[in-house]
Amino acid sequence: MIEQNFEPIIASDGIALELLRKEFPKLRAFELPSYNITYAKKANSFKIKLLKDFPHLLKTIKREKKVIENLIETQAISAIISDNRFGVRNRAIPSVFITHQLRVLSGSTTWLSSKLHQKIISKFDECWIPDYAGAKNLSGNLGHVEIFTSSIKYLGPITRFRKLKIDTKYNLLILLSGPEPQRTYIEEKMLGELKHYKGNVLFVKGKIENEQHKEHIDNVVIYNFMTSNQLETAINESDIILSRSGYTTIMDLAKLEKKAFFIPTPGQYEQEYLAKKLHTEGIAPYSRQDDFNIKMLSEIQNYSGFKSEEQQLNYTKLFRLFESK
């Protein structure tokens, strides 16, 4: 948006806000009410916890709307792009919802969660989906449904990274992310498994803190977090990637044409679906968190890895919506 001569204003909360402030220190940034979403300690408790959190979610959406109304008045905002934030919209200005989930997987209640999500999406002027429109895509059934009347635009996968021609430095990059307590669980498990791994390892914990920390333990280099530029280099110079099967990570790895091994967050239906999809398509293997051991990485040689499909996005045409009101 900066390259198209727009003036972006950041609004977020928690770790995401801290990361965005680090990446774009010159932009104005405001805090939004937090959804405070955490994962259950046990996978089979995931849906129950979401139901318990639902009243808080509704209150947060109402608070979001009030904050947005105030920001529009005080900051002269002329358009909104909401990254999966339900209350970040306003009828007075063009409002876009960006998501890869037209279908929200929730087990036996997928039909209900999908309808509710689609109803929210329909309140926005447009819905932008970061994926390919055709049968060959990354999100599968999540981002492609047969009957949905809202204005949808497929942007192609979005990533901040570029493929670089640099020498391989690490045999393995472990890239962690996501809410607690599951992020800590997998961190502890990986540190234990790495005692049996002989190659060079870069371990990025995904803990956004005030200061970046780096340490060496035998053949492992450990960071609490990395900036975009650092992470771009790290992925490019790593042979294989071990990570959660989150959609943002998948888009990044697809652009960089990497080989990967995925461990879905327990109870997270979307990540489980994406990991199984990529396994079925012969792109990348996966394992349940409790079942994983470091020897499983040898399975990667039987998979193709990601291949990038170039798609040029016409940003001038895409942003024309913001000149319509």
Notable characteristics:
single chain, 325 residues, alpha/beta, Rossmann fold, 2 domains, 12 strands, 30% helix, globular
Describe this structure as you would to a colleague.
The chain is of the alpha/beta class. The chain has two domains: 10-160 and 313-323, no CATH class; 170-302, Glycogen Phosphorylase B (Rossmann fold, 3-Layer(aba) Sandwich). Helices cover 30% and strands 15% of the residues. It has helices spanning 14-23, 46-75, 110-121, 182-193, 228-236, 247-256, 269-280, 315-318; strands at residues 10-12, 29-31, 80-83, 95-98, 126-129, 152-154, 170-175, 201-204, 214-217, 220-223, 238-243, 259-262. The strands form three sheets. Strands 9-10-8-7-11-12 form a six-stranded mixed sheet, with helices on one face. The longest helix has 30 residues, at 46-75. It is globular. The model has no long low-confidence stretch (mean pLDDT 91).
